[in-house]
Write a structure and sequence with these properties.
Blueprint lengths: L4 E6 L7 H22 L1 E6 L1 H4 L8 H8 L7
Parallel strand pairs: 1-2
Amino acid sequence: MYQANVYSIMIVSPSDVVQEREIVKQTIYEWNAIHSEKTGIILQPVGWDINSFPQMGNHPQDVINQQVLKTLTL
């Protein structure tokens, strides 16, 4: 067990680049597996396709912003 700082990495893309988003996520997971223990850093992928859920009442982008971006600390 080790202590690490977690950094959220926001993945922003349109819905028609599914494979590319998967490549980015897999690259982040691989980086974590190789480097996180020795650097004390964990990268956490964040995106609308991972961290949002269906909700009605507002414009879709506003819903995503509220659900995903508000939770990120800069």
